[in-house]
């Protein structure tokens, strides 16, 4: 069952738990105004015991450097809790942001949240973050 955790005029965030993964769907703009809300929402989920995340960016209409910064911030928090993070449904425009920042190879990126949740999470998969492991296959 999908649960809304943020409703804002330009953005909404909801989550669902699938196959051991907390799938966080962001819908709208991720910018200097909304990024802190997203960070706090994900950190709250981590603090509530969620460990393994798939971040679904399929409905993100805009992301700036603050948006990328918030992904890095909650990746650190997830890593501290020996969790894992996969990113799904990244548009070409957003993928370019990951490329330009040099972070594309640091994340497992999947075409869809369904594909991101197919295999069970492995605790501690972010132990070597931000350096990609040899096993990570980023399209």
From TrEMBL:
Residues 112-139 are annotated as: Disordered. It holds the Pfam family STAS. Residues 11-120 form the STAS domain. PROSITE patterns: STAS. InterPro entries: Anti-sigma_ant, STAS_dom, STAS_dom_sf. It comes from the Bacteria. CDD domains: STAS_anti-anti-sigma_factors (cd07043). Transmembrane segments: none annotated. Belongs to the anti-sigma-factor antagonist family. This is Anti-sigma factor antagonist.
